[in-house]
Amino acid sequence: KSANPQWREQFDFHYFSDRKDMLDIEVWRKDNKKHEELLGKCHVDITALPAKQTNCLELPLEKHPGSLLMLIAVAPCTGVSISDLCVCPLGDPNERQQISQRYCIKNSFRDMKDIGFLQVKVLKAVDLMAADFSGKSDPFCVLELGNDMLQTHTVYKNLNPEWNKVFTFPIKDIHDVLEVTVFDEDGDKPPDFLGKVAIPLLSV
């Protein structure tokens, strides 16, 4: 019930050089669980922003009244990665030993913000639901931890996809929950939901 909402939310998007350079933002109005209405959208060219500083932007919504006030900072990625199984960041014994020393009990209070990191190996899915008329799906997997999100590539026409990817997240809150969702890619349309699992970090 507000025309001037304040969200004060921070989101971390991991930008890699092989991804598109535009940040797409949409504002939606929700009356209830079934009815939603697009209030406007805008775009930010990431490559045009100065790096290593916080940029204050007021972005007018396209074809709609109103604007968004945002702070956007482009900074080097730290602690997050996507890799294949064969070059897994924890696969090197020397690196494992350094990490064990970094997070040993005597170093617990050296950096209070450095809680640790989570490494997830996404191997495969089995017996997924068929979302296409052909009896197949085009599945990809999205991993979310707090406001961090990474995703696998799409395996086309397959109900038993193998991704074999390793994802590394920095942990900001030990009470966060890792959410792993499988979607079916559907061209220009929103992806179809195929399933989801939630794993509290405290259970790992």
What can be said about this structure in brief?
This protein has 204 residues and is mainly beta.
Discrete helix count = 1
Amino- and carboxy-terminal Cα gap: 40 Å
Query: How would a textbook summarize the main sheet?
Result: 5 strands, mixed
Could you tell me the mean pLDDT? 86
Order of neighbouring strands in the sheet with most strands: 1-9-8-11-12
Q: How many DSSP E strands?
A: 12
What's the CATH class label of the largest domain? Mainly Beta
GO molecular function: calcium ion binding
Keywords: Calcium, Membrane, Metal-binding, Repeat, Transmembrane, Transmembrane helix
GO biological process, one term: regulation of neurotransmitter secretion
Main location: membrane
Would you spell out the secondary-structure blueprint of this structure?
Elements: E1 12-13, E2 22-30, E3 36-45, E4 54-60, E5 67-73, E6 81-84, H1 93-102, E7 116-124, E8 139-145, E9 148-151, E10 162-171, E11 177-186, E12 189-200
Parallel strand pairs: 1-9
Antiparallel strand pairs: 2-3, 4-5, 6-10, 7-10, 8-9, 8-11, 11-12
Structure description:
- The chain is mainly beta.
- It folds into two domains: 53 residues, no CATH class; 98 residues, Immunoglobulin-like (Sandwich), CATH 2.60.40.150.
- Strands 1-9-8-11-12 form a five-stranded mixed sheet, with no helix packed on it.
- The longest helix has 10 residues.
- The chain starts with 11 loop residues before the first strand and ends with a strand.
- The model has no long low-confidence stretch (mean pLDDT 86).
